[in-house]
Amino acid sequence: MKTVLSGIRPTGNLHLGNYYGAMVNFLKMQEEYKCFFFIADWHALTTHPDPKTLHSNVKNILSEYLACGLNPEKSVLYVQSDIPEIAELYLLLNMQAYLGELEKTVSFKEKARQNPNNVNAGLLTYPVLQAADILIHNADYVPVGKDQEQHLEMTRNYAQRFNYKYGVAYFKEPTAFASDQQMIKIPGLDGSGKMGKSEGNAIYLIDEPKTIEKKVKGALTDNGPEGENTSKPDYIENLFTILKVVSTPEVVDYYNNLWNTGATKWYGNLKKQLAEDIINVTTPIRERINEIKNDDAYLHKVVTEGTEKARESARKTLREVREIMGFKPF
Ligand code: TRP
Questions:
Q1: What is the pLDDT of residue 192?
Q2: Structure pTM?
């Protein structure tokens, strides 16, 4: 069976964009593939997170993953820092990673420009650690967005170089997961292209109904269409994009018709409907998140079992890699 692997840094809560862009696909993948979903807490270290909040951030994401329906009976769920084999593979793969290439990585250049006083070696070799995450399970598919494609390409380079250097066909070359339909991109409420935590325009799965109503109410609109059958400006199109994923086709048609007739003064109703339908989607998830977060015994069980499965797979890879490279026990 093909293997899918996905990692997420524990730096915030899941929002609607994560849910429709990634989670909905994960839920399908876990039925069809052998899936590894892990929380990349080592990757979060590049920005020196506060030790007081590191653990609760990991716990949040884990609770949210479980509340959304990732099933620990079907998928392997774990925390990166529980798998020391990843760190060892990272060390070994560093020998396949060249300074010039690392320095040219888009994500590295961007971070170095944003934080010129924190250009640490961990930041430079971030893609090598990511490659170790992926190759430790010899994953076939990695469901990632555009911003991660370069890291995946670097992973393939390291896999290829390793295979070539040692004359083996050991590592597979992982590819971005291509689902039949494009990954759905959920826009922000501020008229910008994409919902994101750094953009400050996100609706989170844990947001209370009141918060959601307030955020939707505050979404950018204008005075209404300037005639019949005009095209929608981006910020109005964005509201319809979200409506399409949370509402029924009838509701979407209803508001599309209003737009097309050139009527005005219905944005208030649209926003009310949109908020209500978002709340309908998020409420059961939010309730589940809060239950799971308070169930330490359950979280402990999930992580213990996930760690064991992940380490079993990781140990096997490392044993084989060591052998290929010429490490021998006395
Ligand atoms: N770099 C990824 C991100 O910022 C997170 C990540 C770490 C990851 N290791 C991974 C994603 C392995 C996929 C596979 O989104």
A1: 77
A2: 0.95
Give the per-residue pLDDT at 181.
52
Give the ligand 1 atom nearest the CA of 129.
9
Mean pLDDT of the chain: 95
Q: Average the pLDDT over 36-57 and give the result.
A: 97
How confident is the model at residue 276, as a pLDDT?
A: 98
Q: What 3 state SS string does the chain have?
A: CCEEEEEECCCCCCEHHHHHHHHHHHHHHHHHCEEEEEECCCHHHHHCCCHHHHHHHHHHHHHHHHHHCCCCCCCEEEEHHHCHHHHHHHHHHHHHCCHHHHHHCHHHHHHHHHCCCCCCHHHHCHHHHHHHHHHCCCCCEECCCHHHHHHHHHHHHHHHHHHHHHCCCCCCCCEECCCCCCCCCCCCCCCCCCCCCCCCCCCECCCCHHHHHHHHHCCCCCCCCCCCCCCCCHHHHHHHHHHHHHCCHHHHHHHHHHHHHCCCCCHHHHHHHHHHHHHHHHHHHHHHHHHHHCCHHHHHHHHHHHHHHHHHHHHHHHHHHHHHHCCCCC
Nearest atom in ligand 1 to 130's CA: 9
* Residue 2 bears catalytic tag: no
What pLDDT, on the 0 to 100 scale, is given for residue 214? 96
Q: How far is the CA of 122 from the centre of ligand 1 (A)?
A: 14
